[in-house]
């Protein structure tokens, strides 16, 4: 059967198909074109795959199989699908390849457009695909970018078939031709065979006209004096450009340099006309076929254009016709100021961008399919945001996609944040992604831990809160010790834990990344002494385990004191991001939790947030964009509303968000444990996040969310189908915090203002050690059991409090900094006062127990958004607790911390008032509550 397409072959031109799709391959579409039309090759690109895989359900069975068969990430899923198609196409073309002795019969796959700016990455990816697909008639497409050209030489030298894509400019084509020659010469010089290597230079045609003609049309419309001359060039420049490229090719293959390679059996690098479907409906649909017919060239044609050519194409060797005319067209374009060089340069950048966008769309589509398949195995997130905030989030996600944030974040590109050392603090990404923990060793440790009745974890902030959430949400397994977390210097708190344990049957974790934090160090010496007294001198060490970064002071102490174990942290993970590392996993193992399955469940989220998942489909990015944009819109009070079983996560979220983002006068102020109110209680500075565990009662927060939503408040709902999905939230929020940090424009991995309070405290404690004195200052008022410390007096207690609260402005917040024992009763008393203030002043309220919050929200209170108005509560420790070998007691340390904290707050211009309770704490809180109510009345 004759075919006009096939007849192009008689004129020396090969026809390739610029299309690929699974059913087309499997149902014999390609085989038919080979047989009927003499098609001898296939090209693919990211847009072609996006059209094939990203729409419809043809690939769903494979996607299901891949996801179910190993819960792989979307990049892997895409590659499996693409590789399968490319192999099928290559195998279908293999008889052609064999018949022509390797002269044709190729199928091309493109390296990821994300790598277009990196020679090394392009080479590595090309080699990986070459090995993976493993077909002699494969061509790897490398873009003709600055970084791509040297890759062409190296890949050719390495023996790969290369198709150089996105060529628009003559000069770049010449550079690419040179790279091919140099690659072959390198092989020849090394005595390697050059005869089995093929290469094509893909010269893009229609896209040039699309650009030039748009400029022409605009100028004509604007009444350009040269309108007639301009119009005459419509649809002509790209073809003229291509003709000159072909002239260069003809020259090159007659050169001595080429001839000597040809003598060794080398094949010329053929010109391939790409982008040959007509984009402008006013031009003939076969324009870029008819006009580009020439010997030893290829035209890669999409199906519709091929049909059109089969129907009404013209067979003539046009490429060598009227070359002078082509020169005149280009000269005329130049005379008319049509900047071909500028346009072709821009087209390369655009081309990479377009293919990256197509890849993003495809990976996003696969991510969505994967999420649907995983169903409840992956935690859900729904957001109901006011219109402008939703728009800002959408815009941000799209910008983040275009700027490659997801990949840049995973690759540690510090320019996402402040360009500082952020890249050195991303170990938590890997902690979630791969097994960094020796699970076997952890299982052995868990078996050892069974002999203990209780476990006490001594650590502050990030070094204890993750373990506390795990204990609170997952609980311990039968037969394993009960975990108590002690993150305080409060004598009452310490006494409560001491009373709850049998020191001789308790395992102690001393958990500190730096190994120099004061509280765990003091607590270690307190409990070590206690155990020594119970178990006998020299025997305590075997009940102690250190979790600390290598080389820390704690590690040394642990060795000296004969600790049972020392677990080493990863120095590239900051404390607040450390839960999925040994800091969370070691205590979890001691509680009998199956760390392996917890991490496996977590990994589904990690994969959903992987670098190849575009921001919009990436659950961590989505949350981060919401948080970041909410902050930018003034909604910086992230109000945490967990269902009952998830309550412990609030404190962990607080430390993560506040310490990471609250600096330079910006960031998130997390609001935890503030009872949920009616819409009227809230201003427009909130973002509500509800976390719900399946099986929990909808309860208060759940029930009021709809009303808040209706009132136009932004509400995010996160759902967990099971307790072991808590790890997914750890990872999601860590990523979200890093993303929010990038949006807010701060370094989410430092904590500059925490250090200031630490320093002040240390100065006070050291002075006390020397002098035995701690100067708490003189109160401005004593009223019953309460003493008030303030910058100036203002009448009675209620008046002082009134003046204090009058400093609250819209968008500000009221903070309770309570240096008292953390207990349900005290928490409830604070919550009641918080509600009084919120409802009276429509401001957010926060509360923290000192010194616990110093290692968490303390950063944001001092360094974060201004407007915090702080009421510090202190009391004399009674009974107090001595610290072995020290003059200062725990009570003195705690008071030093309270005073140091206040000094720094004052230095930062924060509004403060201290109320000191004499005698019974509970009674003092009741009295204070009464005064707060009076002050607000
Ligand atoms: O683990 P470390 O070094 O004892 O620090 C405990 C906590 O203190 C902080 O450094 C803040 O003071 C937190 O970032 C950290 O989680
Ligand atoms: O190799 C083929 C090219 O990727 C393709 O021809 C580009 O065509 P387009 O410009 O129509 O997208």
TrEMBL record:
Q: What is its main location?
A: cytoplasm
Which EC numbers does the record give? 2.2.1.2
Q: Which UniProt keywords apply?
A: Cytoplasm, Gluconeogenesis, Glycolysis, Isomerase, Pentose shunt, Schiff base, Transferase
Q: In which pathway does it act?
A: Carbohydrate degradation; glycolysis; D-glyceraldehyde 3-phosphate and glycerone phosphate from D-glucose: step 2/4; Carbohydrate degradation; pentose phosphate pathway; D-glyceraldehyde 3-phosphate and beta-D-fructose 6-phosphate from D-ribose 5-phosphate and D-xylulose 5-phosphate (non-oxidative stage): step 2/3
The record's catalysed reaction(s) read: alpha-D-glucose 6-phosphate = beta-D-fructose 6-phosphate; D-sedoheptulose 7-phosphate + D-glyceraldehyde 3-phosphate = D-erythrose 4-phosphate + beta-D-fructose 6-phosphate
Task: Keyword check for Transferase, yes or no.
Answer: yes
Enumerate the active-site residues.
141
The cross-references to InterPro entries, in alphabetical order and at most eight, read: Aldolase_TIM, G6P_Isomerase, SIS_dom_sf, SIS_PGI_1, TAL/FSA, Transaldolase_2, Transaldolase_AS
Asked whether the keyword Transcription regulation is assigned, the reply is no
Q: Name one GO molecular function term.
A: transaldolase activity
PANTHER family for this protein:
TRANSALDOLASE (PTHR10683)
Q: Write out the similarity annotation.
A: Belongs to the GPI family.
Function recorded in the entry: Transaldolase is important for the balance of metabolites in the pentose-phosphate pathway.
UniProt-recorded name of the protein: Transaldolase
Species annotation: Novosphingobium album (ex Liu et al. 2023)
């Amino acid at each position: 059967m004759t075919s006009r397409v096939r007849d192009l072959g008689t004129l020396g031109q090969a026809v390739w198909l610029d299309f690929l799709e699974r059913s087309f391959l499997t149902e014999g579409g390609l085989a038919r074109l080979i047989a009927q039309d003499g098609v001898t090759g296939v090209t693919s690109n990211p847009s072609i795959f996006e059209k094939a895989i990203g729409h419809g359900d043809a690939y769903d069975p494979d996607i299901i199989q891949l996801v179910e068969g190993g819960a792989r990430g979307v990049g892997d899923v895409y590659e499996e699908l693409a590789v399968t198609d490319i192999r099928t196409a290559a195998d279908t073309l293999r008889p052609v390849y064999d018949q022509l002795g390797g002269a044709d019969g190729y199928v091309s796959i493109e390296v990821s457009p994300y790598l277009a700016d990196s020679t090394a990455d392009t080479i590595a990816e090309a080699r990986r695909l070459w090995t993976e697909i493993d077909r002699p008639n494969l061509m790897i497409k490398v873009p003709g970018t600055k970084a791509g050209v040297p890759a062409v030489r190296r890949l050719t030298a390495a023996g790969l078939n290369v198709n150089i894509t996105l060529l628009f400019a003559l000069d770049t084509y010449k550079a690419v031709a040179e790279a091919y020659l140099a690659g072959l010469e390198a092989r020849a010089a090394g005595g390697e065979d050059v005869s089995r290597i093929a290469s094509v230079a893909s010269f893009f045609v229609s896209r040039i006209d699309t650009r030039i003609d748009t400029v022409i049309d605009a100028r004509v419309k604007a009444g350009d004096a040269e309108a007639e001359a301009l119009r005459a060039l419509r649809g002509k420049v790209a073809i003229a450009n291509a003709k000159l490229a072909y002239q260069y090719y003809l020259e090159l293959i007659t050169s001595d340099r080429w001839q000597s390679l040809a003598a060794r059996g080398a094949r010329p690098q053929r010109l391939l006309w790409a982008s040959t479907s007509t984009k402008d409906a006013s031009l003939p649909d076969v324009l870029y076929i008819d006009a580009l017919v020439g010997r030893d060239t290829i035209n890669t044609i999409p199906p519709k254009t091929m049909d059109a050519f089969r129907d009404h194409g013209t067979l003539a060797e046009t490429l060598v016709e009227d070359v002078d005319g082509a020169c005149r067209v280009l000269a005329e374009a130049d005379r008319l100021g049509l900047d071909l060089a500028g346009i072709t340069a821009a087209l390369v950048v655009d081309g990479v961008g377009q293919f990256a966008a197509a890849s993003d769309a495809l990976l996003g589509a696969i991510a969505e399919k994967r999420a649907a398949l995983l169903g409840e195995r992956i935690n859900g997130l729904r957001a109901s945001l006011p219109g402008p905030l939703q728009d800002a989030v959408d815009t941000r996600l799209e910008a983040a996609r275009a700027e490659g944030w997801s990949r840049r974040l995973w690759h540690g590109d510090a320019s996402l944040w402040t360009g500082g050392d952020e890249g050195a603090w991303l170990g938590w990404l890997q902690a979630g992604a791969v097994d960094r923990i020796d699970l076997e060793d952890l299982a052995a440790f868990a078996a050892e831990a069974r002999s203990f009745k209780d476990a006490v974890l001594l650590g502050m902030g990030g070094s204890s809160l993750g373990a506390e959430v795990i204990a609170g949400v997952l609980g311990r397994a039968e037969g394993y010790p009960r975990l108590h977390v002690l993150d305080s210097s409060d004598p009452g708190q310490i006494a409560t834990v001491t009373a709850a344990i049998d020191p001789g049957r308790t395992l102690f974790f001393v958990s500190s990344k730096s190994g120099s934090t004061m509280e765990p160090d003091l607590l270690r010496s307190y409990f070590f002494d206690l155990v020594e007294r119970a178990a006998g001198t020299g025997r305590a060490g075997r009940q102690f385990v250190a979790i600390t970064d290598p080389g820390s002071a704690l590690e040394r102490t642990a060795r000296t004191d004969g600790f049972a174990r020392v677990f080493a942290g990863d120095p590239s993970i900051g404390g607040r991001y450390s839960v999925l590392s040994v800091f969370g996993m070691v205590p979890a193992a001691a509680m009998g939790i199956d760390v392996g399955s917890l991490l496996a469940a977590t990994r589904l989220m990690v994969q959903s947030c992987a670098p190849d998942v575009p921001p919009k489909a990436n659950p961590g990015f989505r949350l981060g964009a919401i948080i970041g944009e909410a902050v930018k819109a003034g909604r910086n009070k992230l109000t945490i509303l967990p269902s009952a079983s998830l309550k412990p996560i609030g404190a962990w979220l607080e430390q993560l968000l506040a310490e990471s983002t609250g600096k330079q006068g910006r960031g998130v102020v997390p609001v935890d444990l503030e009872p949920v109110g009616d819409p009227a209680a809230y201003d427009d500075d909130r973002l509500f996040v509800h976390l719900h565990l399946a099986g929990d009662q909808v309860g208060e927060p759940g029930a009021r969310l709809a009303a808040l939503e209706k009132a136009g408040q932004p509400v995010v709902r996160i759902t967990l189908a099971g307790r072991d999905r808590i790890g997914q939230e750890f990872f999601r929020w860590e990523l979200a915090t890093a993303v929010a940090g990038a949006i807010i424009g701060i370094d989410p991995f430092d904590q500059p203002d925490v250090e200031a309070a630490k320093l002040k405290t240390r100065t006070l404690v050291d002075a006390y050690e020397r002098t035995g004195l701690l100067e708490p200052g003189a109160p401005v008022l004593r009223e019953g059991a309460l003493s008030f410390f303030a910058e100036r007096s203002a009448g009675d207690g209620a008046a002082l409090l009134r003046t204090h609260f009058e400093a609250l402005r819209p968008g500000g917040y009221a903070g309770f900094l309570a240096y008292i024992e953390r207990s349900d009763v005290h928490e409830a008393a604070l919550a009641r006062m918080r509600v009084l203030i919120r409802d009276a002043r429509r401001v957010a309220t926060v509360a923290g127990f000192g010194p616990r919050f110093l290692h968490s929200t303390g950063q944001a209170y001092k360094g974060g958004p201004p407007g915090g108005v702080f009421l510090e509560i202190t009391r004399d420790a009674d009974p107090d607790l001595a610290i072995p070998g020290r003059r200062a007691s725990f009570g003195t340390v705690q008071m030093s911390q309270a005073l140091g904290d206040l000094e720094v707050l004052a230095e930062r211009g924060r509004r403060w008032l201290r109320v000191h309770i004499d005698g019974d704490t509970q009674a003092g809180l009741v009295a204070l509550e009464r005064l707060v109510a009076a002050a607000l009345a």
